[in-house]
Write the structure tokens for this entry.
Amino acid sequence: MKVTVCIGSGCHVKGARKIIALLQRLIAEGSLPCELELEACFCQGRCTEGVVIRLNDEIITGVSTENVEALVRERLADDR
Ligand code: FES
């Protein structure tokens, strides 16, 4: 699954870098049940709803270090 994290200035201020660090740690630990391809992107035009990520092609808003792992795991479970 491809996870794309917006690193535009609005999402940066809301903690995009911490979300990327958390995802990198989960990938390094191998604690997710599938391989993740992690990418960064620039502003997705929804800055007030950040942090914005895309799971494959689905845009998800309001992402934080508190909910990103659960969001990814839910999506992985749905894809099975
Ligand atoms: S900075 Fe992330 S949507 Fe604009």
Summary: The pocket of FE2/S2 (inorganic) cluster is lined by residues 6, 8-11, 43-47, 50, 52 (CB under 6 Å). The two ends are 12 Å apart (CA to CA). Helices lie at 9-13, 16-29, 68-79. The longest strand covers residues 2-6.
